[in-house]
Amino acid sequence: AYKAAHDMLIAFRGPITPDALARMADDLDLDGAAILDRMMSEDVTQVIADNHALAGRLQISGTPTFVLEDQLLRGYLPLADMQTLVQQTRQQ
Question: Which pTM does this prediction carry?
Answer without folding.
Answer: 0.67
